[in-house]
């Protein structure tokens, strides 16, 4: 397949091109020898994402031009293109369940794991203020849940009626009480919105079933990929899957779990910090866990970014504390902050921000042990995700693949658990770096070529036979 706007001349043939259409930058990664036992990552190109110009294809073509230049070629020709997207605010969703700690939380876990950005979660019957908020948010997908199978029915039906009356012409996913499925179909039968019916995310008390809903969210995203200007035309160019970028990282994380065992993946970005974990946890903690956790979990911290949200992290540390710790003029560094640090002081500043983002993200993602006191004395309980059995901590994203002290930053996780009551990874967990910065691309590649994606990921991580890891 040719890109028509590239000049005539020498053509490099590429097996698979994966485009990551981000909110600010569009990146393309090129892979060759896909059908051999030694697939290769051959290069990367990037250009500004062109949402504001009305067509993301401008940025996509610019990144392909840049790839050709980086490879020393006049133009490139590719057999296949796949894509991930977080342009135009990514996959915006609202989630509506019955009880916040049960069905609403289960639905939220499913949406986050699929790569969504959740703008609103409600529990119980929707109110007028909720309807107003949904209209203002203008979500790409709405997820309705509520009631265990053969349990409470009315809340989900009431909410579905109100959502149907809005007639938003967006995909609606129902993942609640199985008894409501036929009724839900009737509610939406004359509405423009496409309805997806999926297995209950919370079929029984203390039982999560989030994977079917995750898959349907990604299918719905791909079917309706027209929320960013020009994306409908990208669908014509791309002859493989398009999935949300964070969802693609989760796909790659799950692929690695099958090969390596329990792990977490940290992605510290300019605006957010994402943490993906795939782990069962320890038997000891599972015995005292008060509510179920999914095998694979994603949290996104919208306030922890080392560029756009730099000030938030400075405030968390404390400007005076930071100035004393780094012995630097923090006001000057903040005023002259760049997306990619250049001077030694700027690098040290961003490394400290990154460390804080990592520690806060882990603290919010992981569970903890608490003591309860009653008539029978002290009892220990656990709540939240248990990361104590994690074997590998993987860094991806710009900060954790490029900063000089990225290894030490991730080693600080276990060291920060001074009370040993936080369910953090231990010091035995090995540190791996996505050196080629291709994890998001390989997640979508794994949908068609799982073994190829695994081989390329292990190369990027520096994993040799026997899983010896090269740190740094």
Description:
With about 475 residues, this protein is an alpha/beta fold. It has helices spanning about 55-70, 100-115, 130-135, 155-165, 180-185, 210-225, 230-235, 245-260, 285-290, 310-315, 320-325, 330-335, 345-365, 395-400, 405-415, 440-445, 450-460; strands at about 10-20, 25-30, 40-50, 75-85, 90-95, 115-125, 140-145, 170-175, 195, 240-245, 265-270, 275-280, 295-300, 370-375, 375-385, 390-395, 430-435. About 40% of the residues lie in helices and about 25% in strands. A hairpin with a 4-residue loop joins strand 11 and strand 12. The longest helix has 22 residues, at about 345-365.
Summary of the model, kept short:
This protein has helices at 56-70, 100-113, 128-137, 154-166, 181-187, 211-223, 231-237, 245-260, 283-288, 310-317, 319-326, 330-335, 344-365, 397-402, 406-415, 439-445, 450-461; strands at 11-21, 25-32, 40-48, 75-85, 91-97, 116-123, 141-144, 172-174, 195-197, 242-244, 263-268, 273-278, 296-301, 368-374, 377-383, 392-396, 430-433. The protein has 472 residues and is α/β, with parallel strands linked by helices.
Fraction in beta strands: 15-25%
- As laid out across the biggest beta sheet, the strand order is 3-2-1-4-10
Distance between the termini: 38 Å
Task: Please summarize the sheet with the most strands.
Answer: 5 strands, mixed
Structural class: alpha/beta
DSSP helical segment count: 17
Net shape: globular
**Roughly how many Å is the radius of gyration?**
23 Å
Quaternary assembly: single chain
> Low-confidence segments, ≥5 residues, pLDDT <50?
1-7, 466-472
Instruction: Tally the beta strands.
Output: 17
Give the overall average pLDDT: 90
Helix content: 25-40%
């Amino acid at each position: 397949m040719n890109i028509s706007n590239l000049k005539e001349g020498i053509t490099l043939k590429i097996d698979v091109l994966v485009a990551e259409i981000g909110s600010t930058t569009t990146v393309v990664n090129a892979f060759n020898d896909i059908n051999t036992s030694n697939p290769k990552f051959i290069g990367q190109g990037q250009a500004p994402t062109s949402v504001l110009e009305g067509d993301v294809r401008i940025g996509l073509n610019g990144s392909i031009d840049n790839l050709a230049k980086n490879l020393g070629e006049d133009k490139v020709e590719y057999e296949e293109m796949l894509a991930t997207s977080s342009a135009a605010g990514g996959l915006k969703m609202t989630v509506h369940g019955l009880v916040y700690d049960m069905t609403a939380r289960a639905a939220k876990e499913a949406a986050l794991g699929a790569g969504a950005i959740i703008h609103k979660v409600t529990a119980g019957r929707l109110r007028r203020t909720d309807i107003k908020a949904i209209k203002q948010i203008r979500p790409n997908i709405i997820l309705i849940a509520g009631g265990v199978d053969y349990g409470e029915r009315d809340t989900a039906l009431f909410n579905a009626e109100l959502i149907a009356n809005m007639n938003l012409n967006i995909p609606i996913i129902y993942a609640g009480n199985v008894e409501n499925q036929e009724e839900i179909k009737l509610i939406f039968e004359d509405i423009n919105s496409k309805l997806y019916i999926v297995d209950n995310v919370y079929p029984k008390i203390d039982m999560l079933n989030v994977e079917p809903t995750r898959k349907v969210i990604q299918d719905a995203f791909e079917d309706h990929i027209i929320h960013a200007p020009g994306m409908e035309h990208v669908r014509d160019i791309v002859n493989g899957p398009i999935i949300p970028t964070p969802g693609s990282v989760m796909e790659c994380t799950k692929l690695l779990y099958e090969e390596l065992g329990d792990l977490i993946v940290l992605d510290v970005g300019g605006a957010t910090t994402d943490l993906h974990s795939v782990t069962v946890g320890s038997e000891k903690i599972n015995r005292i866990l008060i509510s179920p956790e999914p095998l694979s979990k994603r949290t996104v911290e919208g306030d922890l970014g080392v560029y756009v949200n730099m000030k938030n992290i400075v405030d968390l540390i404390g400007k005076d504390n930071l100035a004393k710790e780094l012995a630097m003029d923090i006001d000057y560094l903040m005023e002259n902050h760049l997306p990619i640090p250049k001077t030694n002081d700027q690098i040290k500043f961003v490394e400290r921000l990154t460390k804080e983002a990592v520690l806060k993200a882990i603290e919010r993602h992981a569970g903890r042990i608490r003591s309860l006191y009653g008539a029978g004395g002290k009892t220990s309980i656990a709540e939240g995700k248990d990361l104590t059995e994690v074997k590998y901590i993987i860094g991806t994203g710009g900060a954790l693949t490029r900063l000089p002290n990225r290894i030490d930053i991730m080693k600080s996780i276990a060291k920060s658990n001074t009370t040993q009551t936080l369910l953090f990874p231990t010091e035995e967990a090995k540190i791996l770096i996505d050196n080629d910065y291709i994890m998001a691309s390989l997640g979508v590649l794994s949908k068609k070529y799982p073994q190829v994606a695994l081989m390329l990921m292990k190369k990027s991580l520096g994993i040799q036979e026997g899983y010896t890891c090269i740190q740094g």
